[in-house]
Write a structure and sequence with these properties.
By secondary structure, this protein is of the alpha/beta class. It has 10 helices and 10 strands. It binds glutamic acid. Glutamic acid binds next to loops.
């Protein structure tokens, strides 16, 4: 089977060393196996993404010596693909509209803090959605919809897991994993202002693009549990994953995503060679 890997940056800033590390990890994994390497622009957050950053990312990648196969897939050109996947999940009765504002969620969590068990946290420390809108009666839900209140769509995690049954997935570096998507709770699958979310768009795109090895940073390890569940619900093929360690500075601190000092542009302006920057990104020739 041909190996297909990808790099999927969001054009919210310039490419920095951490991105270069991730891109090179995917490119080497694909090319080392004689496979295909794809590029995808994850621009669903139209308030933060900028075309000029996208141009700069492509240019920096080419300067680094990376090439990719076929056209670049831009998520903002594929809303219908995400809507179709949502319709499948909706048909299974696994998603519900959530009208909560961020403030309402915080207030609910604060109220739970005084309760005996307190609220649970997701692995990244952010609080789990308390399930407020999952418990609305059909009438309450219909009323809110009739009022035209904006809503996100959330996955009913407990029901989705029950439907899918036990799942596992494999990381090429960390080995076999039992899927535990419940740690992220009732994740958002479509935002109030966007007909998709990170979790849904990535899962749909990796299937459509035929990705066989998902290479990305360890910071997204927990998200993979959710993606594995979505694949099962949507009847998708199951790739393997390869979560790489995050690049750190000399003091062992994780490189800030928008640290200008680590921007590939800054190294280029200093006159560094592509080979030097690849080495700084953890991939000496
Ligand atoms: N777009 C994500 C990022 O820039 C990466 C998504 C992925 O590789 O699954 O962090």
């Amino acid at each position: 089977m041909t190996v297909v890997a990808r790099f999927a940056p969001s054009p919210t800033g310039f490419l920095h060393l951490g991105h270069a590390h991730s891109a090179l990890a995917g490119w080497r994994r694909a090319r080392g196996a004689g496979g295909r390497f794809l590029l995808r622009i994850e621009d669903i957050d139209q308030t933060r993404c900028r075309p000029e950053f996208e141009d700069a990312i492509l240019e920096d990648l080419a300067w680094l010596g990376l090439d990719w196969d076929g056209p670049v897939r831009r998520q903002s050109e594929h809303w219908d693909d995400y809507r179709a996947a949502l319709a499948v999940l909706e048909g299974q009765g696994l998603i519900y509209p959530c009208f909560c504002t961020r403030r309402e969620i915080q207030a609910e969590i604060a109220a739970m803090q005084s309760a005996p068990h307190g609220p649970a946290d997701t692995p990244d420390g952010s609080p789990l959605y308390p399930g407020t809108c999952r418990r609305l009666s059909p009438q309450e839900r219909a009323d809110r919809l009739a009022e035209g209140r904006p809503y996100a769509l959330r996955l009913d995690m407990a029901e989705a897991m029950r439907r899918a049954g036990p799942l596992s997935w494999t990381d090429e570096l960390a080995g076999g994993q039992a899927a535990r998507p419940e740690r992220l709770g009732d994740v958002v699958l479509a935002r109030k202002e966007t007909p998709t979310s990170y979790h849904l768009a990535v899962t749909v795109d990796d299937e459509i693009q035929g990705v066989t090895v998902v290479t990305r940073g360890l910071d997204l390890f927990e998200a993979t549990h959710v993606h594995r569940l979505l694949q099962a619900l949507l009847g998708y093929r199951v790739p393997v994953w390869r979560h790489h360690a995050l690049l750190t500075d000399a003091a062992g601190r994780r490189l800030a995503k928008r640290s200008d000092a680590a921007a590939i542009r800054a190294f280029r302006a200093e006159g560094r060679s592509a080979a030097e920057v690849r080495a700084l990104a953890g991939f000496a020739d």
